[in-house]
Fold this sequence. Notes:
Blueprint lengths: L2 H9 L4 E4 L6 E6 L2 E7 L6 E5 L2 H10 L3 E3 L8 E5 L6 H18 L2 H4 L4
Antiparallel strand pairs: 1-2, 2-3, 3-4, 4-6, 5-6
Amino acid sequence: MNHESLRDFALGLPHASEHLPFDEYTLVFKVHGKMFASLSLDEQPARMNLKNTPERNIELREEHHWIIPGYHMNKQHWNTVIAEEYASGALIQELIQTSYNLVWQKLPKKVREGGL
């Protein structure tokens, strides 16, 4: 997956938005103001930080050499996914969805139900 396909997938999730809060090279994806992913725009291949459970993060790192501890993130909760040509696009989409879901579940009930 390339930068554009990663961006398109993340923005296709409900209430997702993109921001450049850190610099012009780090695109951050949020749901209702909470970050669920970041994408490095100046890296080739594309690199994306994604949230997951600590246990699953360990499993992913052991199973896939293109998944490493999250760069500039809490390494217990975040991984950096390197979207190289041999990386599974389906798995990357699943990981983006999981990261989004973890953040969505932590939002206040009023926000999730559309009250805000």
